[in-house]
Amino acid sequence: MGCCELKEEILVRFAADCQGVLREEEIEKSLALLDGILEDMLDTDGVHATKAGYAGAENADAFKHHKPIDPQIYRQNCQALEMYLAAKRIEGCSEKTLRQYRLILDKMFQAVEKPAMELSTADIREYLSTYQQQNRVSKVTIDNVRRIISGFFSWLEDEDYITKSPARRIHKVKSDQVIKEAFTDEHLERMRNVCHSMRDLAMIEFLASTGVRVGELVLLNRKDINFSERSCIVFGKGNKEREVYFDAKTKLHLEAYLTQREDTEEALFVSAREPHNRLTINGVEKCLHRIGKKCGLADVHPHKFRRTLATMAIDKGMPVEQVQTLLGHVRIDTTMHYAMVNQHNVKEAHRKYLG
Known about the structure:
- The chain is mainly alpha-helical.
- The chain folds into 2 domains: 3-158, no CATH class; 185-353, Intergrase catalytic core (hpI Integrase, Chain A), CATH 1.10.443.
- 58% of the residues lie in helices and 3% in strands.
- It has helices spanning 3-18, 24-42, 60-64, 71-90, 95-111, 121-135, 139-158, 185-194, 198-210, 214-217, 248-260, 281-295, 302-315, 320-327, 332-338, 343-353, and strands at 225-226, 231-235, 241-245.
- β2 and β3 (241-245) form a beta hairpin.
- α9 runs antiparallel to α11 (248-260).
- The longest helix has 20 residues, at 71-90.
């Protein structure tokens, strides 16, 4: 991994860990400070380190046979990238999304030897192929990279910087349709049984009952919870608010957890150790991994609770449009992708309607 990629990777991970702990303006100040420190440590001035020219390379041998990037071309591409990010910021993209765009596109600019305005379809195809081979990423990941690159060139076309996007002929990467499993009732019960703290039990129940994203969970405050209505307002993707609901069991566990807390932190879930700061995304993931290890479940993570809720809701007959609203999805096909239809129910429906 080149110096610039290493720096960007550190910045992206740092920003993700800060979500829900610091305010957006505090995160930006911290990122600026960290960026300066890393700049000095990694010595990435000027040409952004010649070795970084081979995006995704994992060892020194990969750099030896690659031509150093032209600083003038790289500078031109970075200027185009900054204009693109400014346009997307005005359109309302979150800083987290913009950082992802910057990371993906900057890697491409370090690998190619042409100005962005002169890149051909063949150049982009070759880059994507090399990226996939070197980084050994899945088809889903490489399609996300393709989508971000395509968005950049579509913007260049819309702004009349180029006549036609070279990425237009590069179609969506077909990925294997793998059925992702959800938790069973037994899995959930096993997790409950190994929870030795009120916080962990309340968190398990809350995730299972609401299906909120982990990023939404860590932003919740005590005052956001409406116990009488068994609901709360979460701040989700695209800066959109939505109301989610929880069951009676979750209400009781939340009340018990909040009652025994002695700290003054406004966050709904806090760290177990003093000074009891707001729980971070990384903290939630580690906690769930620990719970899964205790009860013998290998794949316990926040997103699986969300998938489980969608599967159970559709399985029990909830209209998919309502599940879509509950999960905060813009497109209904995203909801269907989350949910795993119970094959037994398909069999019974076949017998009922067609047998």
